[in-house]
């Protein structure tokens, strides 16, 4: 089965490999990441992941295509990737000492069929000093991450607690994706067991 990850995220690539999917191509979607105004965070990530999946699937109709999109939301506002160090500092200050929710939409397309779902994971930051925020922003790590932090990197030093799928906070809800893939006939546990026989 030809599998395509419609993302250039190294974290999503790593997570697919952890799930036991090692033979796949990376073909990022090129479309604009904008959506209709007024969508909830869950609706937004579902729409964007569905659009990415459809774009790549249209060019590769024989493949199973996986696409995802992740945002952070706090106080009903969506925090995407910061465009500047100052914006990253502002986002981190807003998250300091509070709980926010990480939403990831995931879509799988194959043969004209698409399944799209989302995962929501509450995350709580400890209270950060202005110096800590400045130092973390200076590492450059926040710049390509929704909400201006990466839990799998130095951002782990900021996170006090998490409720739900840790991998969702990294950008791919692997448990949910595994169930979706099983619906397409790709049972990852069965494939792993066969390799051991």
Beta-strand portion reads: 15-25%
Structural category: alpha/beta
Distance between the termini: 21 Å
Topology pattern, helix = H, strand = E: EHEHEEHEEHEHHH
Instruction: Characterize the biggest β-sheet.
Output: 7 strands, mixed
Please report the total strand number as a whole number: 7
Global morphology? globular
The average pLDDT value, as a whole number, equals: 94
Helix content: 25-40%
Helical element count? 7
Low-confidence stretches: none
The radius of gyration is 17 Å
Structure description:
Strands 1, 2, 3, 4, 5, 6 and 7 form a seven-stranded mixed β-sheet that branches. Helices cover 37% and strands 24% of the residues. The model has no long low-confidence stretch (mean pLDDT 94). The protein has helices at 10-18, 41-59, 85-95, 130-138, 166-170, 174-183, 188-196; strands at 3-5, 25-26, 64-74, 77-79, 99-110, 113-125, 159-162. The longest helix is centred in the N-terminal third of the chain and has 19 residues, at 41-59.
Indicate the topology.
Elements (H helix, E strand, L loop, with lengths): L2 E3 L4 H9 L6 E2 L14 H19 L4 E11 L2 E3 L5 H11 L3 E12 L2 E13 L4 H9 L20 E4 L3 H5 L3 H10 L4 H9 L1
Parallel strand pairs: 1-2, 1-3
Antiparallel strand pairs: 3-4, 3-5, 5-6, 6-7
Helix pairs in contact: 3-4
